[in-house]
Structures are given as structure tokens and as C-alpha cells.
Design goal:
By secondary structure, the chain is mostly helical. About 80% of the residues lie in helices and about 5% in strands. The protein is built from five helices and three strands; from the N terminus they run E-H-H-H-E-H-H-E.
Length: about 130
């Protein structure tokens, strides 16, 4: 069965992930120019990430507000979070951008935060029970 009775941990983790995504996305969109100078990261990269985070954040808040959740939706969130972490590391290691020290701290810090949400959501998924038929 694909529908779960979501554990409290899963719901809280999805909600927190969504709120963090909305906050970060808003900051990136509203202050992209200032952050680009502060972090030595391309403005377009920050804007693009911000615009991606806004609808994702809305989806995560909605998903976390549901008592019954589709298991595949949770796995999609886990995959997106894993891809975000990998892309963040590739961005720094590839040489495509040359952030300053604060830019490195920002990229690594947000990647670690996403990794934490991924772990909490995975544990919450394991604690969720399949919906009785």
C-alpha cells in the first residue's frame, strides 16, 4: 500500500523543511544582489535556487499538514533533498563558482541542514504505518 499514517516525526520534519525552504527561498529572492556580493556567488544562481525553493516549501508544508501521506511523495522529497546536497557539494568542488569563505560556509551549512531534514524524514518514514485497508 502506498498510503501511510504519517508519524508525528515525519509530519514535523516535512513542516520544518517546508518552513525553512520558504524562509531561505524568500531570502534568496529578495536579497539576491546583496547576498551575491556578500558570498561571492552568482546572483542568478541564488535567484534560481530561491525560486525553486518557494513552491517546494509550499508543497512540503502542505504535505506535512496531512495525516495520511503517499509513501512515493515522501520518497520524492527524500530524493530531492539528496540531490540538493549532492549538487551543493558538486558546485563547490567543480570550480563552476568561486565563493569566498563566507560563501563556502553558506553552501556547506545549507547542505548540512538539508541533510538533517533528509535524515529526520527518513526516520519519520520508517516510523509511519501503512494505512489499513
Amino acid at each position: 500500500m502506498h498510503t501511510l499514517n504519517a508519524s508525528p516525526l515525519l509530519r514535523r520534519a516535512l513542516l520544518a523543511d517546508g518552513v525553512a525552504g520558504l524562509a531561505t527561498g524568500s531570502l534568496l529572492v529578495l536579497a539576491a544582489g546583496w547576498l551575491a556580493e556578500l558570498l561571492a556567488l552568482p546572483r542568478e544562481l541564488l535567484l534560481g535556487a530561491g525560486w525553486l525553493l518557494l513552491p517546494l516549501g509550499v508543497f512540503l508544508v502542505w504535505l506535512g499538514s496531512c495525516e495520511q501521506i503517499n509513501r512515493l511523495a515522501v520518497w520524492a522529497v527524500l530524493a530531492i533533498n539528496a540531490l540538493w546536497v549532492i549538487d551543493s557539494l558538486v558546485l563547490l568542488l567543480s570550480g563552476w563558482v568561486t565563493p569566498n569563505l563566507l560563501g563556502h560556509v553558506f553552501v556547506i551549512g545549507q547542505a548540512l541542514t538539508v541533510l538533517l531534514f533528509l535524515e529526520l524524514e527518513l526516520v519519520g518514514l520508517k516510523r509511519s504505518e501503512p494505512l489499513a485497508a
